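A note on notation is needed here, since sequence and fold are reported together in a single record. The reader may check this reading against the record printed directly beneath this paragraph.
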Amino acid sequence: MQTNPETEYQALISVGELKPDADQAKAVAALERLHGELLNARTTGKKWPIRLFLWLGSNKSAPKGIYLYGGVGRGKSMLMDLFYKTIPIESKKRVHFHEFMLDVHDRLKKWHEFSVQERAQQGSRAGDADPIPSIARKIADTTMLLCFDEFQVTDIADAMVLTRLFNELFAQGVVVVTTSNRSPDDLYKNGLNRQRFLPFIQQIKDKLEIISLDSPIDYRYNRLKGAQTYYFPVNEATTTELSATFFRLTDRRVEDRHKVPSEELNVQGRMLFVPKAARGVAVFSFKRLCANPLGTADYLAIARTYHTVIMVAIPQFNQENNNEAKRFIHLIDALYEHGVKFLCSAAVPLQSLYAGGDISFEFERTISRLMEMQSESYLARGHGKNLYS
């Protein structure tokens, strides 16, 4: 049965999972508008879905996308969920913005390594010395609707590419919906050579409907407020508590635990398996993340993708499991620097987590960070590494 964002939103209110919120209602209305415009375009009977709006006629432009921004926990990702799952088109893609830009930079690197013949095979036109148009065409060939989670620009390499890339994507008829913690005018704030980035901000304002979620209610923080984040020992009771918190954070019913999906993250061409993930919350065992040979790139990918990480069964550390302890330090550093909320079960109390070895000094900082990550001020932090705030 076909549904839509408004119906899904009202259903969540009716069962008590959400409370009426004027800002959210405004955002839902915009998403409902776009949902309807995309469906109406689909019923034209034309070839579907590649470059949809190019063949609707030169006088017909693509509908405006949407830029949802606001503080942490205002419901941006939840509203994106409602829109994405209810739009019945195949040529859609939802991706964390950082992962999207990693893919773009990888394509740029490969293009510069191609021969002229290989560039032509990738869609480059004769005499085209700029890879951006062909990369945009390749994206548009398979993706009419691009949905980004956590749009933020802190890297000059991204800033220099974005204006040209999105100019091409918009010209190809690609529709963009994105969430962000920042208003468009605050993107890449105080960044190097920011004046060269300003045309992109104007693009965003022209092509997307800008909607602010300014409600004073921090729904995510309210779900965590007063909750314990560090549990010990590792037993059935603490596992049950963490499980209950996961379902509370993700608005899922405990009886639907078997429906919780897994995910995979692309880390420098490798796939990192995430056993359980929903609405920006990921669940891992300690063994999966720290007993396996993972590194900083893996932990940064997790930190950028998920606003909350739940880890089960952390052991007490000593000289015997020093390698695992070092990986745990790197993991916590990545999570802390990106404001990720961390809940866990461990074998012993926090102050006893490291029983001795040659990294005692380094682990003291980890203990300190874990203590801070339990504080109300940390739990109220936004997600993301804000280099220019």
The longest helix spans residues 22-42. The two ends are 45 Å apart (CA to CA). The longest strand covers residues 308-314.
